[in-house]
Amino acid sequence: MARFGTVAEHLGHLRNGLASLDRQAGLIDSWGQQLTTAFVAGHKLLAAGNGGSAAEAQHLTAELVGRFESDRAPLPAIALHAETSSLTAICNDFGPDGIFARQVRAHGRPGDVLILLSTSGRSRNLLAAAADARDRQMQVWAMTGPGRSPLSDLADQTLAVETAAPTAVQEIHLIAVHALCAAVERHLPSVRWADQAAEVSR
Quick check: 163 and 16 in contact, CB under 8 A? Predict the structure, then answer.
């Protein structure tokens, strides 16, 4: 694991991560298109992470329910770690590894999308959620750090940021979150706002 080190060293890790993200620009655009299709069909997005990754997952859902750059219909997106009463109740009764999986079983339906953010790709609570989502015929997407991981093995699609420092991975994930929001808005043509709002509200 790379140390944060000096500012120059950290910027070097960020440059590596940005180059990796640039190589996967097509994947993010594809996610935006797939997510748009899911929203219009009445499906929703569930998102989760731990620590700083939780904050970034919630950032994603906030941009979709609210607005990113365009004035458009609110989109159904839920950050699973943000429901503190449910989270603490589940943790107390079923243990920490089940905090997201149980919510996936409660909220997830076939055709919904679950996106999981993790710098390591090894968090047991995210792996359990991914397994349950697959069982429920949901799409599972992952944003991880470099290389193959248990989470990427469970996910249908993975954006793996190839840089050595976990701190840089997390920063690149935030850029990827913004790029995904932009892709969603790009694939939601303005002439269909009213139709989409009606579909989402059903």
Answer: yes
To which H or E segment does residue 37 belong? helix 25-40
The CA distance from 186 to 168, in Å, is 27
Dihedral sign for Cα 9, 20, 1, 50, please. positive
Q: What is the pLDDT of residues 111-163, one digit of tens each?
A: 999 999 999 999 999 999 999 999 999 999 999 999 999 999 999 999 999 99
How many Cβ atoms are within 10 Å of 52's Cβ, its own excluded?
16
Q: Tell me the three state secondary structure of residue 2.
A: coil
Token pair 């298109």: residue: 33
What tens digit of pLDDT does each residue of 33-42 get?
A: 999 999 999 9
Residue 63: exposure state from Cβ atoms within 10 A (0-12, 13-18, ≥19): buried
> 139-144 and 77-79 as β-strands: parallel, antiparallel, unpaired?
unpaired
Which three-class secondary structure state does DSSP give residue 51? coil
